[in-house]
Every structure is written in structure tokens, then in C-alpha cells.
Amino acid sequence: MNHSKALLKRFLPPLCALLLLTASFFPYQGSKSRLRVVPGVWPAAEALLMASDQQMLPPERFQLIEIPWASAVVRAFGSGAADVAVVTLDSVLRMREAGQKLRVLKVLSQSAGADAMVAPQAIQRLQDLKGKRVGVERSAGSYFLANALESAGMTMAEIEAVPLFQSEMELAMQAGEVEAVVATDPWLTKLEKNGGHKLYDSSHLKVPIMYLLVASERACTSSRPELVSLLRMEAAMAEKMWSGKPFPGMEAVLRRENLSAEELAACLQRLHALNKTESAEMLKKLPALALQMEDLMIRNGIIKTKLKLKAEEWIDDSIMKEAFR
């Protein structure tokens, strides 16, 4: 019975995510002109989810699709099932390499410890992972994994990367299927609560993990008013979330992230939310940061070639300027 429950816990969430993703390909007739938003379910995207919870996104203009994992969010956007997504900078580079036409509209937040290499107490150093199995969500965690290994003088070839969804990592570690995992909040918080400890976290990265709001080229031209509204509502909700006080809709966030109020507060402290001024400045820095990130990703085989991107080909700050003028 316990084995059956474990299997259900492990495979039911990915199945539900697959069904949600499949359903997004077949919206009802009246939704064709709606802006389809896939934020993912993680603290960095909660401001958008809160806006939906509080009915700030009119259903005749917006369709918000909840998909729990970063890899599924990237696939939804790449397949054309979504117009807007929250992804990391390293994911943007992989998406651009795959030929996806997108624009970065805003830098939402920066990980300051919200991503980490987690292992049981028996493993105390990154070097102890040589020859070991490490669970990683490939589309989102490979950049972090490569950084962590390089910091210890190691390469990706010295470990066995095991593809896992974030929700699978705790059970995989308990079953001995992997010796360590690359986890992000809220799953990182749960792993630490159950005895895991950090070997390395995102506060040590030279080029930080940044959560970006991206939109398709088509949406930037055909849904500009909706994108302006979306940026304004996200900023308003983010200000409430990072106020350090209880906020309207907090109970829904706690249920969705499966966290206590204290755990959520700790998660938010490990994410630096950028205000509109900081985001505008970071957009200017993105091309240089992307070049540094690109070098590491090529060196570790995460992407194959230099993308030679011009800023105007993947960054559009005009929508944010319109939203906050």
C-alpha cells in the first residue's frame, strides 16, 4: 500500500501537468484572442498567480495556465501553447538556440539562495559527488549544476545527471536513486526540512539565476495592451508579496506552494524581487550577462554554439516603459 501511495505521489503530478499542457492546445472558441500566460508554480511567479486568484486578469482577455515545472513551461511556450511565460535567463538562451522568437519584457527577480545543490548528511562536499547520480531538471537546473561542479574543479562528465521533476526529487533521494539534487524553492525548503543540506547555492553564482517575463514576438505586436496591463498587475502583486507583511491572497499562495507562512517568508528572502527601476537597469545589463552565461553553457555542452544575439532581437523594454511611465 505504501509503495502504491509513493508511486501515486510521484507520477500523478506529472500526469496532471501533461493534461493541463495538452488542454492548452485546445482552448474553447471564445478564447482564441486571449493572452495565454504560463507562469509556472514557484515563488518567483506567484505575483501573476495572485493576480489571477483575485480576478485582476479579465477572463475574456487572459488565460492563465498553471503548469508546475520549468521544463513544461518552456515546452508550452516553445510549442506555441503559451504567449507569455516566466523562465530563467539560461532557459532563454536554450530557447533562442532552438529558434524560438521571444522578447524579454521584464526581470522579475533574482535568486539569492533559492536554488541549491542538496544532499544527505553523509555527503559533505561537492567533490564527494564524483561518480555519483545527481537529480536535475534539465531545462532549468543544468546551468546551476555546471556552475556548482566548476566551483569544485569538476565537470559534468564526472557525475551522472538524472532527469527529474522537482516534485520527484525528495522521493528519489529517499529511495537512493540519486545521491544529490539541484532543487529550487519551494521544493528546496521541503528537502531541507526533511534533513537535506546545501552543498552549494545560487548566492555564489557570478551570473545569477534571474526570472524573466518573456512574450512571443506575435504577442508583443498583437496583444500589447494586455502585456502592459499584465506588467502593471504583476508589479502591484509583487509589492504586496515582498512587503514583509501578510497580504491579501496569502492563503491561496500557501496552499499552492504547500508551505507554511514562515516557510514562504524564508523563500521570499532568498529571492530578490526587482522593482521597476532595478528591472530597467538589469535589462540593460542582460546582453553582457548572457554572454558570460553562454560561455559556461557552451563549455559544459548545455548549448552548442554562440548565438550572436543583438539586444533588440530578444529584449523589448518599450512595453515596460509604457506600463510604468
Describe the protein's topology.
Layout: H1 2-23, E1 35-38, H2 46-53, E2 62-64, H3 70-78, E3 84-88, H4 89-97, E4 102-111, E5 115-119, E6 133-136, H5 138-151, E7 160-163, H6 169-174, E8 180-184, H7 187-193, E9 197-201, E10 210-216, H8 217-222, H9 224-241, H10 250-257, H11 261-269, E11 271-273, H12 276-299, H13 318-323
Parallel strand pairs: 1-2, 1-3, 6-7, 6-8
Antiparallel strand pairs: 3-10, 4-10, 4-11, 5-8, 5-9
Helix pairs in contact: 2-9
What does this protein structure show overall?
With 325 residues, the chain is α/β, with parallel strands linked by helices. The chain folds into two domains: 16-110 and 208-323, D-Maltodextrin-Binding Protein, domain 2 (3-Layer(aba) Sandwich), CATH 3.40.190; 115-204, 3-Layer(aba) Sandwich (D-Maltodextrin-Binding Protein, domain 2). It contains 13 helices and eleven strands. The chain has a six-stranded mixed β-sheet with strand order 2-1-3-10-4-11, with helices on both faces. Strands 7-6-8-5-9 form a five-stranded mixed β-sheet, with helices on both faces. β6 (133-136), α5 and β7 (160-163) form a beta-alpha-beta unit. α2 crosses α9 (224-241). The protein starts with a helix and ends with a helix.
